[in-house]
Amino acid sequence: MSPYNPANVYIDSMGINYVLEHYESTPDWDNSRQNTGLHVIKTHQDVTRFVKSVAQLGSGPGDETMDALKYGMAELGRNVVQHSNSPVGGVAIAQFFPDRNSLQISISDCGQGILSSLNTTYPELCNDLEGLKLAILPHVSGAFRHGMYSASENAGLGLFFTKEICWRAGGTFWLASKRALLGVTENEAVGMERVYRRINTWDGTSVTMDLPATGVVDFGGLLSLCRTLAAEAQKCSGPAALDFLTEVPELKGLKIISVGDFNEDVEAAATVRNNEITPTVKNGNMVVLDFKGSRFATQSFIHALLNDVFRLPASILRLSFVNCTRPTEEAIRAVAAYAASYRQCV
């Protein structure tokens, strides 16, 4: 007989051993009413069963948050069925953590991964992180394409909606695929904050959605806001994809440019654009523009620095901005919108 191990008892309570042995959903759930048990997701019927299993989580969470949880369970489950191309589907669980009063969904598969799913439709993508950054934008799908980063009116909104719901409710959203991890959380000072990491390879995709149990007060209103943001992004994809960060990502091989060293010098901006930014972006690498020390940037300066860059394929996914004041952000958004309108006309 194997020695007693508390970790093994917890694993057994979720049904991991049963799933690994039979590769089907756990027939019984534990008695703590804190998790749904593990669900194998292969079909849309499996997704429906997973959503219904949320009733197992008891009465601790608020009704509005539970609605948001069910929404995420349905959207993330359907992604496995429609996009993973995994012959064995995926595995999903929803849990309630009373000690921190929060809800969590985790869904993982060993399919083709996000980059491969999107590459046929978006061949300009070069690496896993670019795939993750694109996947959480509105109207992005591996099955449909209309314009640069948009699809039909109702397609490609699942990850965008679940990401927005999480951080706006004070929770976190994590998306991992192959060698990259992207996290989204709330930051009181700046609103949404992103985290990028390089990870040991996960062959497929894994998503975790974490919500405070009473974090969603008006789920209908939150969905309405998400639809408004998605509609605005569909009109002009450029500004919607801009990547404003609170700090430089912990990634190797970044090209970091201190814009504050030549702020408002348009001739220097053009030189940096031609000699540093453009070649790096064309080579499929990430550029971080650091505006530390700049209280503002004029639209004409940003135009000289970035307008031609924004017109390059996938450039939006390879540019990140840190230490931007609100006036600087607005200038960058304006130039990105102008460049996006140009792309749509040529």
Please characterize this protein's 3D structure:
With 346 residues, this protein is an alpha/beta fold. It has 2 domains: 235 residues, Histidine kinase-like ATPase, C-terminal domain (Heat Shock Protein 90, 2-Layer Sandwich); 91 residues. Helix content is 42%, strand content 21%. It contains 13 helices and 9 strands. The strands form 2 sheets. The chain has a 5-stranded antiparallel β-sheet. Strand 2 and strand 3 form a beta hairpin. Helix 3 packs antiparallel against helix 4. The termini are far apart.
Tell me what the CATH architecture of the largest domain is. Answer: 2-Layer Sandwich
Secondary-structure element series: HHEHHEEHHHEEHHEEHEHHEH
End-to-end C-alpha gap: 71 Å
Mean pLDDT: 83
CATH topology of the largest domain: Heat Shock Protein 90
* Largest β sheet strand count, sense and barrel closure: 5 strands, antiparallel
Shape call: elongated
In terms of per-residue confidence, which ranges show pLDDT below 50 for 5 or more consecutive residues?
A: 1-11, 142-154
* DSSP summary, beta strand count: 9
Q: Count every helix, treating DSSP H or I runs of 4 or more residues as helices.
A: 13
CATH superfamily of the largest domain, please?
Histidine kinase-like ATPase, C-terminal domain
Q: What is the radius of gyration computed over CA atoms, rounded to a whole number of angstroms?
A: 22 Å
Please give the domain count. Answer: 2
- State the name of the first-level CATH class of the largest domain: Alpha Beta
Helix-strand category = alpha/beta
What share of residues are in beta strands?
Answer: 15-25%
- How much helix, percentage-wise, in residues? 40-55%
For the biggest β-sheet, the strand order reads 1-2-3-5-4
